[in-house]
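Design review, sub-item: ligand-bound model
Attendees: FS, YL, KQ
YL presented the inputs for the arginine complex:
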Amino acid sequence: MKLWGGRFTKPTNELVEEFTASITFDQRLAAQDIQGSLAHVKMLGACGIIPQEDADTIRAGLLKLKGKWEGGDLPFSIGDEDVHMNLEKHLIEEIGPVGGKLHTGRSRNDQVALDMHLFLKEETTELAGLLTHLVSVLTAKSEQYLDVIIPGYTHLQRAQPVLLAQHFLAYAGMFRRDVERMQDALKRIDMMPLGAGALAGTTFPIDREMVAAELGFSRIYENSMDAVSDRDFILEFLSAASIVMMHLSRFCEELVLWSSTEFGFVELDDAYCTGSSIMPQKKNPDVAELVRGKTGRVYGHLFSLLTVLKGLPLAYNKDLQEDKEGMFDTVDTLKTSLILFAGMIETMEVRRENTERAVKQDFSVATDLADYLVRKGLPFRQAHEVIGKLVLHCIGQGKYLPDLTFAEYQGFSELFEEDLYAAIDVRNVVEARNSLGGTGTESVKKQIAGYQDWLAAQ
Ligand code: ARG
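KQ shared the predicted structure:
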């Protein structure tokens, strides 16, 4: 017998029952559903909407269900459609017809919205914590490898040498903004829809403030139709999550490159790599590849929900049931990705022999040599031209800039003096960039200190 069976004369078609049911996935909201019901029934009793004694009986019944759910001892059935009706059925079985008073002044429409808000509030807070942990791992790694210099790239061509720490801290900046985005999304997640009823509010003298306080919400939806049809808070979460995955994916791409023989900048820990079933020599960066790969499904969930919502008239429509699986999958994907990614960075080692060789065997100090001539009085455009020719000369000779003799330099410009060699020493080149936000060690140390302060305040 369906909870809504009164006006029906026929049983539901079996496939329809399966098609419309959400219990296979929304049972994940059972804890939140019970939490919401406990607050609702407390309010019903306190406001005299149902006798206090009935409220107490219902509360005891709900606590029993909670225990059973936690013990894995609460069977759910497709016939009862969703987590809300499965739990109500169980409650009535547990305490008798008085259990039917729980749904007074409430609809599944405001109930399911409440469950989603409660669920995301918890998960977003946890994800912000995992992101903060990643920022701390990157800050620690930056300190550990503060002396390492790598080529910095534009167009994936060697551009100017930078501290590896500067590269790490660029990502720390992205993940710190991700924490802020999650915290900002939380402001809209932290809103209480219960009390909206099906769409129009209720005839009972409910106390929404009391329920909100009981559940720890800071704000209440001011319009009942908005409360039951709003899914912006999930969209915001999915957007923030998509940006997190995009950041992880960019970094993963670099780790895949950096751990290749061609780059050889880092050695990923064996615990974070896998092998090949045929090629005995292989050690593959699967975690980095798979985090990169899973980015697509999270973007997909964002687009899927945007599309579900785009043509929906107010207020509740069954389409909204499609908000759940993508959100659950996003939470799970993000959690695993963040945990594994942080572990991979934490355990990764830098191969200094390769980073040192890389910064010696390139022309990424050419800008500094041009700046050198500018300091000797040459207009930058002309200096650029001179150094361009010098680089061409080096390529022809199979040499790098530090290998040229002083006489060779003089042949290109009389402004060159012996101090030119110091000007193109890679260490000096890096240390000369202590402008605010630059890659010099002093500037990087200031950035690290900034992250340490921020972390301490979290
Ligand atoms: N399972 C539904 C959902 O997830 C709950 C709300 C159903 N409300 C309704 N009027 N059919 O959206």
